[in-house]
Amino acid sequence: MGQRPKLKLELTNADKTLEIVGWLLLFALWGLTVANYQRLPDIIPTHFNGAGVADGFGDKWMILTLPLVATVLFVGLTILNRFPHIFNYPTEITADNALRQYTNATRLIRYLKVITAVIFGLIAFQSIRHANGQMEGLGIWFLPMTLGLIFIPLIYFVVKSFKAIKK
User: Fold this and answer.
1) Is 116 part of any domain?
2) What is residue 3's predicted lDDT score, i.e. its pLDDT?
3) Is 6 domain-assigned?
4) What's residue 79's pLDDT?
5) Which of 10, 55, 56, 117 is deepest in the core (most CB within 10 A)?
């Protein structure tokens, strides 16, 4: 692998929108968690199995780990996204295709940031509802939905990356 070009990418309106939506969802996750913290019982669900059934329980302060982990992932991906020349790509990066490949890869990261905030928000929301006796578990739909939210965009952007080398 040779030296990859380092480019300054201009954000499109779609990129800016994804960033704003991601940050809003992250703040909403914190708001949801903090607003409901006092009303939680002392013991809450902390783990769910593949069927969405609660199978681990802990102290209520552990609900704060959801927005904390989401924030660490979100900020980490935000920082990483500034350096698309260090990403792993399924194709060779050249001076001719670098802009297209970097734009594609950074957009994927933005989608994954939004998806991360959504998934952690749903886990927090359903955990709070479960702890308050309003429902049982995450639901059978949660795991397939999560996998779809992650892998559908991932496959789309990888295919798009391969198509970008033909242009």
Assistant:
1) yes
2) 86
3) no
4) 97
5) 117
pLDDT per residue as tens digits for the range 37-86 = 999 999 999 999 888 888 999 999 999 999 999 999 999 999 999 999 99
Domain assignment present for 57: yes
Domain count, the chain: 1
Residue 57: per-residue pLDDT: 93
Is the pTM higher than 0.85?
Answer: yes
Assign 3-class secondary structure to the chain. CCCCCCCCCCCCHHHHHHHHHHHHHHHHHHHHHHHHHCCCCCEEEEEECCCCCEEEEEEHHHHHHHHHHHHHHHHHHHHHCCCHHHCCCCCCCCCCCHHHHHHHHHHHHHHHHHHHHHHHHHHHHHHHHHHCCCCCCCCCCHHHHHHHHHHHHHHHHHHHHHHHCCC
> Comparing C-alpha atoms, which of 109, 98, 145, 75 is closest to residue 4?
98
Cβ-based neighbours of 58, under 8 Å, separated by 6 or more:
43, 44, 46
In total, the chain counts a number of residues equal to 167
Show the low-confidence residues of the chain (pLDDT under 50). Answer: none
